[in-house]
Amino acid sequence: RLSCIRNNIWLASCGVLSAGLAVVSSFGLMLYCGVPFVITVANAPFLILGVGVDDMFIIIACWEKSVKEVEKSDTKARLAETYTEAAVSVTITTLTDVLAFFIGTWTAFSSVKSFCLYTGTAFIFCYVYTLTFLGAVLVLNHKREKKNRHWLTFMPVKTDEDKSKSCLYNVCCIGNCSGQSSESEPEHPITTFFERYYGPFITNKWVKLLVVLLYGAYVGGSVYGCTQVKEGIDLRNLANDDSYVVPYYNDDDKYFSEYGPRVMVVVNGSVEYWNESVRVAIQNCLQSLE
Questions:
Q1: Co-location of 211 and 161 in the same domain
Q2: How confident is the model at residue 162 (pLDDT cuts 50, 70, 90)?
Q3: Contact between residue 157 and residue 5 where contact means Cβ atoms under 8 Å apart
Q4: What's the structural domain count of the chain?
Q5: Is 175 within 8 Å of 169 (Cβ atoms)?
Q6: What is the Cα–Cα distance from 59 to 79, expressed in whole angstroms?
Q7: Taking the model in full, what pTM does it have?
Q8: What do you get for the CA distance between the two ends of the chain, in Å?
Q9: Mean pLDDT of all residues in 181-207
């Protein structure tokens, strides 16, 4: 927003900080409990950041909508209305994510198990910090706005535009440069689009029938795709396109795939390789296997 009062940079930054706190807390708890830290766990913070920022967007959007339901100056009522709308969505998404990752801990692969433990625990902490830390910051930010304080300096600012000053000065030192009161909040264009145009369009009976048919085709394609999934991995996909590994495996598949996998022979115990008779016995054994 082009307003030094309505600007929510600190609120957005604290939303990212909330996800960071969840990562630090979960990693600290897992390390304290002795869960091995594998290199794949280093990717977990990006997942937590995505979910944390998404939850932040939901809470802020519900906060902006709550002004229509309750008195704008009633902070407690607005926060209660915000959690009424946002907490259900945030809770459901968190539960599904946590359930998915904790199911992943049943795998026999230790690296995947550690990754799922770290990430699932981080989702729980992210949920807790979102509903506590971020909610508190939301209230503090609202109190700052009610007192017409600057978003950066927290000093009281004027809300009336000074015609003798430039627009840049009004943006930085006045509530806004449009002449509107800092308390007014126009309806967002995205909200208008979904309410006036998309909603009536998608609830048309023919459109609903088309959506059902498309969803049926999607489910059918998904079931067919599941039947075509093959277990294993092509090592060529792990290398760069210009790597020597790619032509090596191409030639290996072209010329040697008919011979099957290599057969390994293990000799248990110590072997006296300096003894000629032992070497002859090993050579005879190899010939027999061939």
A1: no
A2: low
A3: yes
A4: 3
A5: no
A6: 10
A7: 0.66
A8: 78
A9: 80
